[in-house]
Amino acid sequence: MIIAEQKPLDEIKSMIADYQKVLILGCGTCVTICFAGGEKEVGILASALRMATRLDGQDKEFIEATVQRQCEYEFNEEVADLVKEADVVLSLACGIGVQTMNEQFPEKLTLPGLNTKFLGQPTEQGVWDERCLACGDCVLYKTGGICPIARCSKSLLNGPCGGSQNGKCEINPEVDCAWQLIYDRLKALGKLDLMMEVKSPKDWSASHAGGPGKIVREDLRL
Amino acid sequence: MNRDENTPGISPMEEMSPPCQVACPLHTDVRGYVAAIARGDFEAAYAIAREPNPLIYVCSHVCAHPCEEECRRGQVDEPVAIAALKRFAAERHDLSLGHGPPKPNVEPKEQKVAIIGAGPAGLTAAYDLARMGYPVTVFEALPEPGGMLRVGLPKYRLPREIIDVDIKGILEADVEIKTNVCIGRDMTLSDLKEQGYEAIFIAIGAQQSRALRIEGMDLDGVLLGVDFLRDVNQGRAVKLGRRVLVIGGGNVAVDVARSAVRQGRPGSEKEVHMICLESREEMPAHEWEIIEAQREGIILHPSLGPKRILGRDGKVVGLETIVCSSVFDSEGRFNPTFVPDSESVIEGDTIILAIGQASDLSFLRPEDGIELTRRRTIKVDPQTLATTAPGIFAGGEVTTGPGSVVGSMALGRRAAISIDTYLRGEDLTGLQFGEWRELDDLPPKTVERIKPLAREPMPMLPLEERAFNYEEVELGYTLAMAMRAAHRCLTCGGGAYVDTGKCAACLTCVRVCPYDVPIIKEGAAFIDPTECQACGVCASECPAKAITMKLYSEDQLYQEIDALFADAPAENPEPLIVGFCCLYCAYAADEWAESVRAQLPPNVRTLDVVCTSRIDIQHLLRAFELGADGVFVAGCVGDECRHTEKAANRIQGKVQFVKEVLDQVGIGSERLSLYDIPSAEWGTVPRIAQEMTERIRALGPNPL
Amino acid sequence: MKSDSNLEKVLSAGHFAVTAELGPPKNADPEVVRKKARMLKGCADAFNVTDGQTAVVRMASWAACLIQKEEGLDPIVQMTCRDRNRIALQMDVLGAAALGINNILCLSGDHMSFGNHPESKGVYDIDSIQLVKMVKDMRDEKKFQCGEEMKVEPRLFIGAAANPFADPFDYRPYRLAKKVAAGADFIQTQIVFNVPKFREYMKRVCDLGLHEKVYILAGVAPIKSSGAARYMASQVPGMDVPQEFVDRMVAAIKGIPSPKSIADPEKKKEVRRRRREAWQAEGIKICAEIIQQVREIPGVAGVHIMAIEWEEAVHEIVSQAGLLPRPTV
Questions:
Q1: Topology adopted by domain B19-100+436-486
Q2: How much is the ipTM here?
């Protein structure tokens, strides 16, 4: 799932400074689940912005709406009238939704209200952890199902480095050492031989390093 | 139940209703008025309870409350004291606001309707028809309306001024009541038709005591129960001896026995016995009535059949009884069997028979075309209550035999709908009364998690003050008692509902629910109303706003928040403080809602919520947006929460979040405070209000 | 011989080798390097120049190596994967070799978050083991990482690091085996203070026969003060400082008054100097003792002295450890 978090209020305020009527547009999928841009967060942000801008002596109007999935034209079409009515759209979707809106409604600027953080797992209520870097060449079958690309600070393929201590990464005692986790898992699975193999440099061209990703399925195209 | 969507009595219900509402013959929104009491909104409670019930004051004292038998709280400990709460709501009601809702603006109709009998069935039908616009006349044989309410029920259960309150309300609905008019004696059904009544509702009740065909019935000292009660209630002299034997085990028998205790004056103490065929467990009278009877000294003799009345010099001296081994046969029919040679004698000088009542149907003439059943009741279509004579309907005890007040009222209501249908020329056979879907029992896992809370006992007139007078025995709840009693309600079916179109299946509700109710079903959250305890945690935390509460809905909460600011002066010398208080915490404190609120200065306004976990981030922000200078949340200390610690603790994170927003906005986090207050310390709320006021005063007004 | 490395010659001749660290400056002044080079000359067989250690910007390792070489030392260029992808790394390998640098130490590199540019984007295109393999393939197969061939290969003596004290302890000898399999010629370990633990590690390394395939140089370092001892014991990840050494550093200044208790600035300065000297003497002594202890451990082929920003100490350490003069081969 895409994990995002709201931008600081001050940054949002300065983004919308030149606009009077702002449509705050939430998205009902990933960012709803990660409490960043669902209908509830739209309401909270609208309330905060009404107060903050009033304190700044501005008279702004905030319209609230949420679509099911902001990365799809069909869902966004439902708010076309509201977009028309507004001076600017403040999107609480991930970066994909923001771009979809800009593409779909070129005459109206859509601003990002969130910072899109990572692909992650809601590991417990209120906690989200990065789990995938979308490297395009999954190695999980070699690493006991734990991703060293996303979860090792150095994306090592032949870890753990010398900074692994008590199961934690050297960069932060809150961060698990992915390679300790991999080692423990492989040991439990009786597959420590996978740790002995010198893994070759990774083919990063499958990731963003190879240019913007694109998948085309001719069989599915209309 | 959304009262706007359903006509009383007709239930095109899609959703499952709480068992109390289903059990109530009038389908009163019990959950609704109990919840209103719980949140301190007593007039709303009255309005909800009154809505289907023109005899609300009567019912609040004597309703047989079948609702309580079905109450799911009974699965945990004891049922909610629904009847007592209704009485509390009625007693709190300011009658100057009117007895019931104003008469709807309907086209006056010309077809006249006659109703025979001013008891619960007749009065209800009359009230309903009058509100539909029909000219209605009720013909009552007795000098005062009320029927058995007035002449059957003892005053210690139902003070007469209570009846008058309801009668007044019915008269205000433009019902005409003609007393001292006995159909059959003063006029006939044909006369009514000739006078232009296009529909007639027979609701004469069952006011004749059944007699026994045993030896000694003609002895001096043998009385009939209904006659005895009528004489007592009408203040006529009744002669009782020192040993009164009441035959019968039903509610009327108990009324007779308990009235007998009250007859006479000090010095004329008497011994009252009740003899009935049924075993103690089988006695048809309500259990609480039997227990009170015993407390008042009445001696029970269950499982005894009366064989003959013994007399000497034409006067009763005792009752010969025989042991009854079973009352009903294997098919459930009344067919008592007796143990041979088990005769014994109970001495007594007065015998009162209360073994059942029947209707006096002597007014019917063959030409009326009204057929009877084998049980000597009027034969009616059970759906429409139409008799075999066109335009003539019957309902109440005249069709059912002895029953309850509320049961008769429900038939009165049904008759009104039928009569309206008939008078509009529509086909009666098409009239169908929907079935109610009822919530299932609580599943065991839910029962386990619900905190038991003792039922608030009804304060009673001390035993020693009951003899030789008819003071009402049940004294009614105080406010604190009512609040505690109302908080026991599980708000069945009043909880969370999911808009599956909005649900993102994020699992938040699944994780936060203190009762583990929500599950993901077919890709969306599903909250089984059978299990939901309506704490509101899920609704306040759902990021998709896909969960709404049936009661305490988002709209309702916003309205209440907005209302706090309705009369706030523009130039306020004191800071405006808004408090969100968990009303449940009032539990251990006496007279909380009123006494504490009364102590609050006018600049402090409180909104009482069912649980602090129901409070949402947006609710708090809303208060600031509307101009609150300071906001506080006061809730239970973790393990005191009615729900669980899990629910009680949810507010902390939300308050922290809002504090951060307030800092970012520039209003300042110090304007929001959270107080954990042990229930025993609820009296400190005014002190908190004072503290907040001083602190916020120092900060100055909300910069907005 | 795989290279023209002095270190390789010393090790292959069976001598107990000594390497030492030469920290490059945080500026463009070549004199700093020259000065240190002159000070260190003769104390060790080869000299590491760190590559942006702790992710702080310093003079490029290859450049400081070149200056060092001009002073007549045998430099070891350190190369981390943090700042360069495989293209840049291979270019630098070619360049270093072309400049006459004979030794390379392949590292993954300290994470950016520790340094003075924590906002920077880390590269980590490949890791240290892959770097070892890549350099080895360049030297021995004359192939770039992509498989393409080259005419003149970089003749480098390839080193890698090992931390015997990091977790999981059981896996560490095997990770060393991977580095050996990837092509490491020599290993320089993390600083050893906990000698018994290092001995256990070396036992496992020898059990795997690794000491016969690679030269293992135990890392050592002098402790500067009791505060430094405490800091290393508690704050530096992967560092295992037994309490004994902390206590010895504390005891070293027993009898010298605290500078805080002295008002007179001259006397204060004097007391500070006395304390510093007492600490330094004890730190050097401990370091020399550790060298003598690790020298007895089977499989240890030498020591690597990391006197970070205290290069002056190296001579005394090597001297006290009885490792002077260095052999000429």
A1: Fumarate Reductase Iron-sulfur Protein; Chain B, domain 2 (1.10.1060)
A2: 0.91
